[in-house]
Amino acid sequence: PSQPWWGAPLIRVCLAYFTSGFNTAAVDHEADGSTNNGIFQISSRKWCKSLTPHATNRCRMYCSDLLNPNLKDTVICAMKIAQEPQGLGYWEAWRHHCQGKDLADWVDGCDL
Prior knowledge:
The protein has one domain (4-99): Orthogonal Bundle (Lysozyme), CATH 1.10.530. It has three helices and three strands, in the order H-E-E-E-H-H. Helix 1 crosses helix 3 (92-98). The chain has a three-stranded antiparallel sheet with strand order 1-2-3. 27% of the residues lie in helices and 7% in strands. Strand 2 (35-37) and strand 3 form a beta hairpin. By secondary structure, the protein is α+β, with helices and mostly antiparallel strands. This is Sperm acrosome membrane-associated protein 3.
């Protein structure tokens, strides 16, 4: 099922903080040779093209595209992931730090 609330900014803020510390250029190297890329740490195992042979590249982009400070490609790919049956649960950081939490804390004290 689709996650219609993916567009909520606080969801993206919480996820970006706990996956990469807001680092758009973050690359985490896994033991199997795959990488997690960009501000949302999107895996090369399934979602982007890297040097790993036989990866499925479901977002149809290079993993390096996910490292750009312009987040357009990253958000497009993350939205594709969020529309999968697992939804935002794809991200361990979401399950452990954001899901079911009061995300309003992220803007507490801001004059919005």
